[in-house]
């Protein structure tokens, strides 16, 4: 479009002249046969047409069931780098882990590393398996997370909470390592 406009402005400029008895337009910069460029008369109006469809506003009185957007159920698509499973599962595990680490630290006075070494690995593995399966079952059925989020509890809010929980766990472990003891 931009190239066409530039070409038409070059051809319509005062430097353009038509050579008599030949079917070419001559410009000081280029020679173009007229069968490639359609002549544009001066003061011609251009008509622009938009083919976009108008969105129909949803009526308040009619209640139609929402269609749930389907996601790919392919294993590699679900676990791709930008797929729906990895960050969501890691965020959910981080939220549970951060809350559990803080509760155990407040109740028993153990730091994160002591919690892991004193029997925390089986709890971590069990929780990871249960939450991963609970997160994957709807995805393998083709139900997207966005279709089930309304109001305050949206999928974006869950993603941000998971990201902050991941950062919180790393900050908690790093602070306790540098400090040499519990945070509280």
UniProtKB/TrEMBL annotation:
Q: Does the keyword Membrane apply?
A: yes
Q: What is its main location?
A: membrane
Which is a Gene Ontology cellular component entry for this protein? membrane
Q: Which UniProt keywords apply?
A: Membrane, Transmembrane, Transmembrane helix
Q: Which residues form a coiled coil?
A: none
Keyword Glycoprotein among UniProt keywords:
no
Localization terms from the record = Membrane
> What is the membrane topology here?
Multi-pass membrane protein
Output the PANTHER family linked to this UniProt entry.
UPF0041 BRAIN PROTEIN 44-RELATED (PTHR14154)
Official protein name in the record: Early light-induced protein
Q: According to the entry, what is the taxonomic lineage of the organism?
A: Eukaryota, Viridiplantae, Streptophyta, Embryophyta, Tracheophyta
């Amino acid at each position: 479009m931009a190239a066409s406009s530039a070409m038409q402005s070059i051809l319509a400029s005062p430097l353009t002249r038509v050579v008599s008895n030949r079917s070419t337009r001559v410009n000081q910069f280029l020679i173009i046969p007229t069968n490639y460029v359609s002549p544009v008369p001066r003061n011609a109006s251009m008509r622009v047409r938009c083919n976009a469809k108008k969105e129909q506003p949803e009526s308040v009185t009619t209640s139609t069931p929402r269609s749930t957007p389907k996601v790919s159920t392919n294993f590699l698509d679900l676990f791709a780098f930008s797929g729906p499973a990895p960050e969501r599962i890691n965020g959910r595990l981080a939220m549970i882990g951060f809350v559990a680490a803080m509760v155990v630290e407040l109740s028993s006075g153990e730091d994160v590393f002591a919690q892991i070494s004193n029997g925390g690995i089986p709890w971590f593995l069990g929780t990871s398996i249960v939450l991963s399966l609970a997160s994957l079952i709807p995805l393998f059925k083709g139900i997207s997370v966005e279709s089930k989020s309304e109001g305050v509890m949206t999928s974006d809010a869950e993603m941000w909470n998971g990201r902050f929980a991941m950062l919180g766990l790393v900050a908690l472990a790093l602070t306790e390592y540098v400090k040499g003891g519990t945070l509280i």
